Amino acid sequence: MLESVRLRLTLWYTVVLALVLVTLALAGYFIFWQSTVKRTDSDLAELSSAFLTTLMAEAKDQPGPDALKSAAQVAINEHRFRDHIFTVLDSAGGLFITSLDLPSSRSASEDVSPNFLASTSFRKFAGASAGVDHLYRNITGGRHGYRGYARHFPVNGQTYTLVVLRSLHPQKEMLEEITTAFAGAIPIAILLASAGGYFLARKSLAPVAAMSAQAGRIGAANLHERLAVQNEKDELGHLAQSFNHLLDRLDQSFERQRCFMADASHELRTPVAILRGEAEVALSRATRSPEEYRDSLTILHNEAQRLTHIVEDLFTLTRADAGQYPLELRSFYLDELLLDCAHSVRTLALAKHIALIADAPPELPLVGDEALLRRMILNLLDNAIKHTPAGGRVTLKCCSTGGEYALSITDTGTGIPFDLQPRIFERFFRADKARSRGENNGGGAGLGLSIARWIAEAHHGRLELTRSDATGSTFTAYLPATPSPAASSG
Ligand code: ADP
Hints:
54% of the residues lie in helices and 17% in strands. By secondary structure, the protein is α+β, with helices and mostly antiparallel strands. Strands 2-1-5-4-3 form a five-stranded antiparallel β-sheet, sandwiched between helices. The chain has a five-stranded mixed β-sheet with strand order 7-9-10-12-11. A two-stranded antiparallel ribbon has the order 6-8.
């Protein structure tokens, strides 16, 4: 049940509200009680002073306990207030006079029992008052207890104690009423607030439910659909926008993947068709001369090689995309690798009557994946030789500048048309499809430069076409001289 955010929010809200209300009620109760006690104490002090003033005035010039008693009676009669009891104790703590014994004053404290002054709580208070002047204390008795105040006063060399008691009945009654009101109002307030909270939570989470339903309907087939953004400035609007951006990226990635698959199958179809056609031609007659068989097998072999090449390139790119191509890093000298690559393609260049010049200063140390960098250089050299007419020149150079190696391959070929230059690093892109495919065994699938660029980037470097015009092209790979050991396949 608590799996719903709506319910959880409401529950939290209700619990917090209940705690706040109960704390407020308790604090209110306590503050009210404290201020009531304070007010009662100051009333009692005032009343006792007025009482003693009357008593002293009446007892003046009349020595003796009887005169004091009658003076006290006058004072009691004069200060008769509802719910008040006046009692005078003699110096030994014994009862001297009390308003409870005077019938005229009885009605003033009707809820008290006649033997209240003999109760333990009063006796305790009276006993404590002997040692403490101005003693305030709560005393049990009657319906709701009393607030007692005791003060000493001297008469004729004797110390008497005046005890004024005030019933707490009205205050307690008021507190009871307040408590009853709180007890009734708090649950109702909590109930109403939690219903309101649930309604609000429901209303504010409704767009989330709508988004979730909408998102649930989006799949590979309708990846172009987007969530509706009701208010782009609020949090839910931000959420919907972030989700839509994620869908944008997914859509683009899906689109790229779709194109890649379509291009890949298209590229694979051609050599497979050639293989099948060639085999069919070879098999169409019962017997053929050994030369004819050799020719057919040569074609089959070349196409199979081309097919292997394409599949390997595709596999490399797929692993690179998934970040699963582990680089085998080790230290080696880049100049040695360059000379080695130039040596590998020298027969190719010679066959086309192309001059191959390799120029690199000695001892260019590098940490990297030597096999992958070899593949990058060979791809670039292969392209340069492929696109340079006989009698031309291919130059391989390397120099070290500003903490990086600039490795350039320049040819005197036909160049790449200006408008196609931005696209040559795209997968399956060939500037001249007909010519590329037509070349004997040399027609690539348009993956060589993509792979070369990925290799440079995997070494935290970059590969750029720095120049291409009618006089030829220059590709430059920039590689950090000391790549971080954490160079990854991504
Ligand atoms: P491919 O394997 O088909 O050569 P690449 O990715 O290596 O694919 O090259 C992409 C395209 O860029 C080539 O088809 C070619 O048109 C063009 N290209 C690459 N290098 C050169 C170059 N040195 N001179 C002229 N065109 C080039």
